[in-house]
């Protein structure tokens, strides 16, 4: 990493302050239009007076692509070793995840539709001009309600405004065209994977920053959604039981205003520097079971596996549901109590005992084998099995001492040489496979 010359003053087109200033004045009708396209979580965005560029620069040097997960081959990354995926962007901002990828190419038709919605001429394609026009559409007042044409223009203007100011800003003097195709039909905006698009631009930004350091060039502009990196990174750190923020609601951006980010980033800052680069990374990552992101299978308030029970875009989530929600969308109505924590909820992998006892994955930390469910024996049943095995062994020893004609047809030892057991170490339970006299630990 470059150690010599100091960086000039950093800048970034990412401006959550500009977004908050506009959306905080929306009427109820405009807020409903935002929710209708799947961006309702941004209505919860708090005020950010500014954004820490030095902290963001360090984070971008710690971002790498993550192609190890087959389900996210094109849009997944790691920041300081912690993986993030499109669903995590959705949890932070409450924007659409899944669906069709945002097209990278743009047609003349898409450009014409955008210009028409924003009231721009043929040559009005500079970033300041487009953002000014989008802001004008968003602030326009409608005394007698909005016509269908006005609603379509509002939806297009909103996406352009939040993409260019927050979710995926590129250069400061131009507008990226690689999402205009997703705006051709305003009523279909929610069908695109905008969360993946955010990650795509973040990874591009990280590559440019790291290439500049490798070549000894100064870094001046930080593009991409650096606010996502800040919130996701800090939300996954362990600041101690009393200082950790509870993952009891989404979008997560609601819990992170400027002062909160500044305080937590300061606690994570180290005294060392690498050249001009301020260093962070003092704190360790939180346990996966303590966060609501995709790297975890933990419950989040009234959520299971990080899947929100209720609106995913910051809508009404007050009604508690007993439904069990799986990450693949299946919903069950069963009440299953964990034998360890006593909690209700069935995770992707739950350990079942023949007597009916169950253990959540995040309570036992078992190794995920190929099987969907792991056969397991609770402490009481395991003790009974051990006693039975000891009695059987004693009987075999006695039989060896008897004449052959006295031998009876005793039951042999367990037909299966392998069995799943659970070792208790105070708090957590670790799964291991017991083979004869050997114990092969997996956790």
Automatic annotation (TrEMBL):
Name of the protein in its database record: Predicted protein
Signal peptide boundaries: none
InterPro entries listed in its UniProt record: Znf_FYVE_PHD, Znf_PHD, Znf_RING/FYVE/PHD
Lineage: Eukaryota, Viridiplantae, Streptophyta, Embryophyta, Tracheophyta
MF GO annotations: zinc ion binding
UniProt domain Zinc finger PHD-type: residue ranges: 337-382
Keyword terms of this UniProt record: Metal-binding, Zinc, Zinc-finger
Top-level taxon in the UniProt lineage: Eukaryota
Organism from which the protein derives: Hordeum vulgare subsp. vulgare
Coiled coil spans: none
């Amino acid at each position: 990493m470059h150690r010599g010359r100091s960086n000039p003053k950093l800048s970034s087109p990412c401006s959550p302050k500009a977004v908050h200033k506009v959306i905080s004045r929306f009427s109820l009708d405009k807020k409903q239009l935002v929710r209708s396209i799947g961006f309702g979580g941004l209505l919860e965005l708090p005020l950010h007076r500014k954004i820490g560029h030095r902290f963001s620069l360090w984070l971008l040097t710690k971002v790498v692509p993550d192609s190890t997960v087959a389900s996210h081959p094109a849009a997944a990354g790691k920041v300081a070793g912690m993986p993030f995926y499109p669903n995590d962007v959705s949890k932070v901002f409450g924007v659409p995840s899944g669906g069709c990828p945002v097209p990278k190419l743009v047609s003349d038709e898409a450009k014409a539709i955008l210009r028409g919605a924003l009231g721009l001429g043929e040559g009005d394609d500079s970033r300041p001009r487009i953002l000014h026009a989008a802001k004008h559409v968003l602030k326009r007042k409608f005394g007698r309600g909005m016509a269908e044409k006005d609603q379509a223009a509002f939806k297009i203007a909103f996406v352009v405004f939040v993409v260019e100011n927050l979710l995926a800003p590129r250069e400061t003097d131009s507008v990226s065209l690689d999402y205009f195709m997703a705006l051709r039909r305003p009523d279909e905006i929610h069908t695109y994977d905008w969360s993946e698009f955010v990650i795509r631009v973040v990874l591009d930004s990280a590559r440019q920053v790291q290439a500049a350091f490798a070549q000894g060039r100064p870094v001046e502009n930080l593009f991409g959604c650096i606010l996502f990196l800040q919130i996701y990174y800090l939300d996954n750190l362990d600041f101690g039981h009393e200082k950790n923020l509870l993952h009891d609601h989404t979008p997560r951006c609601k819990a992170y205003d400027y002062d909160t980010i500044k305080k937590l980033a300061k606690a994570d800052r180290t005294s060392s520097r690498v050249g001009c680069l301020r260093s962070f990374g003092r704190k360790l990552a939180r346990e996966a079971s303590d966060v609501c992101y995709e790297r975890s299978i933990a419950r989040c308030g009234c959520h299971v596996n990080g899947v929100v029970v209720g609106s995913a875009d910051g809508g009404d989530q007050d009604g508690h549901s007993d439904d069990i929600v799986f990450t693949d969308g299946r919903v069950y109505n069963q009440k299953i109590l964990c034998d360890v924590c006593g909690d209700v909820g069935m995770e992707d992998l739950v350990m079942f005992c023949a007597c009916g006892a169950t253990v959540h994955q995040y309570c036992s930390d078992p190794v995920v084998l190929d099987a969907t469910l792991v056969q397991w024996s609770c402490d009481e049943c395991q003790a009974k099995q051990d006693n039975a095995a000891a009695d059987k062994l004693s009987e075999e020893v006695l039989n060896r001492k008897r004449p052959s004609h006295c031998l009876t047809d005793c039951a042999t030892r367990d037909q299966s040489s392998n069995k799943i057991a659970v070792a208790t170490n105070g708090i957590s339970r670790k799964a291991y496979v017991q083979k004869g006299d050997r114990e092969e630990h997996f956790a």
